[in-house]
## 1
Amino acid sequence: MAKPKLRLPLVQDALTRHTRQLAGCTSCAGMIGPVVAPPPVVSPMYLMGQAPGPHEGELGRPFAWTAGKTLFRWFGSLGVDEANFRAHAYIGAVCRCFPGKTTSGGDRVPSPTEIQACSRWAAREIALLQPRLVVPVGRLAIVQVLGQERPLAEVIGRSFRTTFHGHEADVVPLPHPSGASTWFKMEPGKGLLEQALKLLGRHEAWRAVFEDGSDVQATSAVVSQRSK
Ligand code: SF4
């Protein structure tokens, strides 16, 4: 079982510095700030979203709007509420700024250049945290983590062992919980989502954090630091 090579206080300090640097990033001229920089939660679980929507920047946290409500309802079905999840899992993303809207009103998909530019932040987070479980949420994140585009029906409800940014970890993909998506509301998506959530709830990293508490010592240091 991989553990961070640095001792916890060093990982915590490095992640806190990383978060400050991330918050100041202005690399992409076409992105709309502010950067949504997640709190520096040291965790064996790394959830990777796609990109913030128009509300997350103002609210200062990822998954703060309607998609987040659905995502945290899914985790609630495993007995983990939003506050508990946010306190104990790292929430990264493919891109950390709002890409803006398309002319048809949907959120713009980040360009390959923007995805490449932002990947350095995830690479640093993976190097520091060395998560045992990576949870990519939505097609864009799944492609980044698994390294190839595959139909959702082939990846949701399954777990993978893959190397992401040079680190080997288990991967349990989830569909994007967007209100605009119907994929997870009807079969086969509905049943595959249930299967994916079962895999998450049974994973040893999930259980270590939310059930037996063996990884809570690591994350509780962050929570207490944030509350100061
Ligand atoms: S999307 Fe990522 S790389 Fe681009 S400006 Fe925002 S934080 Fe920086």
## 2
Amino acid sequence: MQEPSAERSHRLNAYLLGVLCYNCHAKKGISPEMGKKKIYNRKDAYYRKAKKEGFRSRAAYKLKELNSKYGFLKEGIKALELGCWPGGWLEVASSAIGEKGVVVGIDLKEVEPLNSNCAVFLIQGDAGETEVLKDAVRCAGGKFHLLLSDMSPKLTGIRDVDEANMGEVYGTVLNAIETVLLPKGTLIFKGFKGEAYGEIASCLKKLFNKVKRIELDSTRKSSNEFYTYCTGYRG
Ligand SMILES: C[S@@+](CC[C@H](N)C(=O)[O-])C[C@H]1O[C@@H](n2cnc3c(N)ncnc32)[C@H](O)[C@@H]1O
């Protein structure tokens, strides 16, 4: 059976994103910043707060901050997180969504089961594989209102390699949208400053009514990360 044209075009976009990232960085060589390690305090205030309040990761406060700004964690919805280990976001999302909702988490690593009123399903696998995404939809009994991605590639300190890997993560997010997200749904994902982001941003503007880039107080000051909040999926 031939794939629907929208799906083909998403796949093509994701593929082109990977190729573009690879091509634009392959030409550039290594900059003086590459390989310089940023020094940061791993055990900062948010780390200590997470320990004290019993969250699995300091990342929990990033989702809390995003939700306090935009209020997307609504009771009873279905939410999927890509790249969920160790589970700080899952803890925050499942407690806000409650017993009438469903939360599914996917990670390459095994995630410890959660103690929650909400139905939480954990899938160990690669979010880049369509079968894994379809499993998530099956677990939830249908597509999701909210797609979260906190995936990050392993950083090497070599700018070209990191940019290409980030492009691959963006491609994974882009490919997931059509398989898992309900029309009018919301997407929030982590990005890193760099050229790869421009490509995904222009794809997303065609797929969503609103696309907004957000910097968080809870992100470490030394980090290049930011989040993108997309609403009104035109699927
Ligand atoms: C920053 S951690 C996520 C933290 C999590 N949100 C929390 O609150 O605890 C990023 C995760 O993305 C996962 N990841 C990266 N690429 C992935 C992929 N293709 N499929 C599934 N997980 C992936 C990594 O294994 C890693 O555990």
